[in-house]
Amino acid sequence: MTDLGTPASSREELVTVTIDGRPVTVPAGTSILRAAALAGTSIPKLCATDSLQPFGSCRLCLVEVAGRAGTPASCTTPVAEGMSVATQTPRLAKLRRGVMELYISDHPLDCLTCPANGDCELEDMAGAVGLREVRYGQEGASHLDAAKDASNPYFTFDPAKCIVCSRCVRACDETQGTLALTVAGRGFASAIAVSQGEPFMGSECVSCGACVAACPTAALTEKAVIEIGQPERRVVTTCAYCGVGCAFVAQMRGEELVRMVPWKEGKANHGHSCVKGRFAWGYAAHRDRILKPMIRERITDPWREVSWDEAIGHAAAEFKRLQATHGRDSVGGITSSRCTNEETFLVQKLVRAGFGNNNVDTCARVCHSPTGYGLKTTLGTSAGTQDFDSVEQCDVMVVIGANPTDGHPVFASRMKRRLRQGARLIVIDPRRIDLVRTPHIQADHHLALRPGTNVAVLTAMAHVVVTEGLADEAYVHQRCDWDEFQHWAEFVALPANSPEALEASTGVPAADLRAAARLYATGGNAAIYYGLGVTEHSQGSTAVMAIANLAMASGNLGKPGCGVNPLRGQNNVQGACDMGSFPHEVTGYRHISDDATRTAFDAMWGVTLDREPGLRIPNMLDEAVGGAFKGLYIQGEDILQSDPNTRHVAAGLAAMECVVVHDLFLNETASYAHVFLPGSTFLEKDGTFTNAERRIQRVRKVMSPRNGYADWEITQKLSNALGYPMAYAHPSQIMEEIAALTPTFAGVSYAKLDELGSVQWPCNAAAPEGTPVMHIGGFVRGKGRFVITEYVPTDEKIGPRFPLLLTTGRILSQYNVGAQTRRTANALWHEEDLLEIHPHDAEERGVGEGDWVKLQSRAGDTTLRATLTDRVAPGVVYTTFHHPDTQANVVTTDYSDWATNCPEYKVTAVQVSPSNGPTEWQESYGAMTRRARRRAPAEPAE
Ligand code: SF4
Ligand code: SF4
Ligand code: SF4
Ligand code: FES
Questions:
Q1: Ligand number, closest to the Cα atom of 279
Q2: What b-and-e string marks burial along 827-859, b requiring 16 or more CB atoms within 10 Å of the CB?
Q3: Whole-angstrom Cα distance, residue 235 to residue 253?
Q4: Minimal-distance CA residue to ligand 4 atom 1
Q5: Which of 14, 167, 896, 914 is most buried, by the most CB atoms less than 10 A from its CB?
């Protein structure tokens, strides 16, 4: 894609200029460099690139402007009406050659062996300006001996090749917002410095790669490019990690992936990335990956490698046997938020049509199921209301129960940019997340509430809005059910819901809460961004509805810059929910009991669907322990590690007679499996993912599946073996079926996605190019519905035995249960899960920094090391859940959201005490896992 040199101007007024005699019309504010590029004229440049503000340091882009003295830099000079510009004159050629000569005289002359050879702007510019010889020798003072920094596992910094153009510094400031780089020194001594002159690794750099992408030379280069060589072909695809859904160009050399470069045209990421999507893809070729199917009679037996036919035939025969013996409802399936929409759709189809029941569920059960329930109830649809670009028009951001810099890093960079431009920030979180105080950003309010009190805080904010007359009644009158609003307004106005009355239970000073509520209601466009810190509670659905109430009451829905925005954790959690993965809903969130909907599916699928909702994951496990549920097909999920109360999950799995795990690795759940079907990575298949802003994007196959088949092919094989035929030749045909069956997807096709790059559902006749912002002009459900949100404290109470509250979260370098990221160099940043504890609580318990501690709850105990920090308030402890050795979910309880069963991960009463070794459970679990992963010796070849 052509680099136009400087960013586009957002001004509407147009001006016409003449460049080398050719007229061109561009928006006012456009640089001469960009106008020339748009006119097809390439002006030499080095320090400018169209993703960054111009800097004007290299002096290579000089031009002559008629009627003006001198030779201004075209990157920093805006066009003016009637301007006449010459870009190629003998004077300019001489000046440019002089500039290049100086650069090259202090640059290694090793182009032929340089890893960037063929992809170096310095090399290109030397050619473009016609530099043939360099008059200055390299024997004088130079930077050629400067030491390389290879500390980062993914890229190197070679100062000898640096031209101090500061593109990296600006990328770190403008694009990433970390401000880790600077130009230190002056004149000849000027050089790029990381933090306080530290190596990259160990500095505040978060390894997003923005500086590497921006560098015009080989000074910052991916290590994979150095090792493998320059790529030969490129394929646009979508990141398989988080719900931001960054688009990447996978750059390949043969069948080997050389690098993932964020795609500038990606509408979710606009050319930015984080360390996971950019660099952490090595797991695809990790030695732990299982590439051959395996079966075993009992989970105590070693695994035996078998052919695909044998594995599929065995699984199908077992499911049939179980249904024949224990009834149709004795088996079920779990879809994956990491797999494509098409794969997820097929798994639920296999369950509903192949098994003949609705026992299908998804990992969204344990994260955003309350979002689905809460937003559908209040607004009429189970999804975030805005696109990410909407943040550009936001004046007040509320971040509640989310940690975007770690969980959704690329969107966090967008938020930070908007905040640096002056938007105001309210953070509602028990922990002082990075966004509260980060370079050039300071939250206006951090309401450090006690875990489990979201509903109380949100209702108290609504109390302030209503009782201080800040509600947008005209909006409510027009858009919402007025009687319900009045009923709700009376409820929130009750003295019991005032910030003062709730201060004791929430721990939030009433004055702070009042000020935050006033800012939200009166500060202009206000958007709420929330995460699992809202949903994973016994009142998760209530909190989502409280958020929707607040947004409706203040008129902050249905226009850019506002909205209710769930930040989705996994790459395709939105898609998994959209695709009918819940036991009570088919695609597009239509209830299975709806006759008209079922009739359409019956006709298309040639079956009669059961009208009764099936079992949710926790119910499947309960029924398994009770003896009625016997077989489970799990695609791409590790429920043993990700679901609460690990011992109960283990007991449920152990009670089943046929557990089929379909995954990349022998994950923790596979210890209880009888059949293992090797999965394919996102690099090895075609399909689509849907991100947190409802954006459907293509996943494209960049290499052949190392396991032999894409996941959708494996599900299809299993369905055929079960006797329910499927005959798709390509995932595009599956999308055609989804579109035919789902009104909100009716206009989606691979051809449209290829043409537009991506679309946001609803995409149909009413919105042929998709819907960036929902509820414009009216809510999907008709009148917006206010719901009473009574605060009911969780049953999980602290007391003398368990006096602290544990809450959990993620860290930037790791992803979810860590199965992928732990198998990459990202492990260097986070080798183990640590327990954050306030120094006061630590001192009371005789716990020091780095000490091993026992973390104990009513459900179980585990050990991990402690780190002392005032990020958490006294009385609160925090840990991540990326490492199976820690098994944080051994400690979490069975309490769950009243509406959806989403587990209450975020509130567990615990005790912390010094420890000197693993718990009994950890030891026995470790031994069991080692036993469960044994493999029988391969049979000798015939
Ligand atoms: S990798 Fe990202 S955070 Fe690190 S220095 Fe470069 S731009 Fe900044
Ligand atoms: S490292 Fe690259 S981007 Fe940064 S100043 Fe040097 S040449 Fe420019
Ligand atoms: S922000 Fe999310 S989608 Fe984007 S690169 Fe990182 S992990 Fe991938
Ligand atoms: S590109 Fe304009 S001064 Fe460097």
A1: 3
A2: bebbeebbbbbbeebbeebebeeebebbbbbeb
A3: 11
A4: 45
A5: 167
In whole angstroms, what is the distance from residue 222 CA to residue 559 CA?
A: 41
Summarised one tens digit per residue, pLDDT across range 683-725 is 999 999 999 999 999 999 999 999 999 999 999 999 999 999 9
DSSP assignment, residue 627?
T
For ligand 1, the distance from its centroid to the CA atom of residue 211, given in whole angstroms, is 5
Judge whether 646 and 928 are in contact, CB under 8 Å: no
CA 901, chain centre distance (Å)? 23
Place of tokens 């993912």: 689
Residue 552 CB burial class (10 angstroms; 0-12, 13-18, ≥19): buried
| Amino acid of residue 586 | V
Distances (CA, A) of 745 to 558, 589, 591, 658, 936: 21, 12, 17, 35, 47
Handedness of CA 52, 54, 57, 61 (dihedral sign): positive
Number of Cβ within a 10 Å radius of residue 470: 15
**In whole angstroms, what is the distance from residue 687 CA to residue 681 CA?**
12
Residue located via tokens 């500095």: 203
- Tens of pLDDT, residues 65-105: 999 989 999 999 999 999 999 999 999 999 999 888 888 87
Which token pair is 579? Answer: 């695709």
How far does the centroid of ligand 4 lie from the alpha carbon of residue 5, in Å? 9
| Dihedral angle of Cα 725, 726, 729, 732, to the nearest 10 degrees | 160
Stated pTM of the model: 0.93
Q: Which residues line ligand 4 (CB under 6 A)?
A: 45-48, 56-61, 73, 75
Contact 761, 774 (CB under 8 A): no
The CA distance from 346 to 728, in Å, is 10
CA–centroid distance, 88 to ligand 4, in Å, is: 15
CA angle, 904 then 907 then 910, to 5°: 125
Distance CA 233, CA 250 (A): 8
Residue located nearest, by CA, to atom 1 of ligand 3: 410
**Ligand 2 site residues, Cβ closer than 6 angstroms:** 162-168, 192, 214-217, 219-220
Do 766 and 778 form a contact (C-beta atoms < 8 A)? no
DSSP H stretches of helix in 45-190: 90-105, 121-128, 167-170
